[in-house]
């Protein structure tokens, strides 16, 4: 329950704060490679992320799948169980794409 509440809190904060914090980074970002291909993020990459980055990535992908499935209601228990299955899948299949794990368990 704490994990799901934390995820929902992070999602809310990310939704509110992210556009504000990105304004300054848009002005400062001079790299040419600013795009992220979501279907190219591997399980290994996700597992190696620092704690907060990993949590934000999982929240983002859950939100993406929720929108993709046109869901307007989230079952917190099912979400927690899916997160556990996705994490286990990634541990067992580090070379798989993270999107594959989400497609399989969401």
Which key features would you list for this structure?
106 residues; mainly alpha; 10k-s Protein, Hypothetical Protein A, Chain A; 5 helices
Q: Write down the CATH class of the domain at 39-106.
A: Mainly Alpha
Structural class designation: mainly alpha
Shape: globular
Low confidence ranges: 16-26
Mean pLDDT: 83
- Helix fraction by DSSP (H/I, runs of at least 4): over 70%
Number of separate strands:
0
First and last CA, distance: 19 Å
Q: What fraction of the residues are assigned to beta strands by DSSP?
A: under 5%
Please tell me how large the radius of gyration is: 15 Å
What would you say this structure looks like, in words?
- This protein has helices at residues 2-28, 43-48, 51-68, 76-92, 98-105.
- By secondary structure, the protein is mostly helical.
- Helix content is 72%, strand content 0%.
- The protein has 5 helices and no strands.
- The longest helix is centred in the N-terminal third of the chain and has 27 residues, at 2-28.
- Helix 4 packs across helix 5.
- It has a domain at 39-106: 10k-s Protein, Hypothetical Protein A, Chain A (Orthogonal Bundle).
Task: Write a short abstract of this structure.
The protein is mainly alpha-helical and 106 residues long.
Structural topology:
Blueprint: H1 2-28, H2 43-48, H3 51-68, H4 76-92, H5 98-105
Helix pairs in contact: 1-3, 4-5
């Amino acid at each position: 329950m704490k994990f799901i509440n934390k995820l929902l809190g992070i999602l809310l904060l990310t939704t509110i704060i992210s556009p504000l914090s990105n304004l300054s980074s848009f002005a400062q970002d001079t790299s040419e490679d600013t795009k992220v291909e979501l279907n190219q993020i591997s399980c290994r990459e996700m597992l190696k992320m620092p704690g907060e980055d990993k949590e934000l990535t999982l929240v983002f992908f859950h939100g993406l799948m929720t929108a993709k499935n046109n869901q307007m209601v989230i079952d917190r228990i099912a979400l927690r169980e899916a997160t556990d299955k996705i994490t286990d899948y990634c541990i067992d299949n580090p070379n798989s794409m993270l999107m594959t794990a989400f497609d399989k368990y969401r």
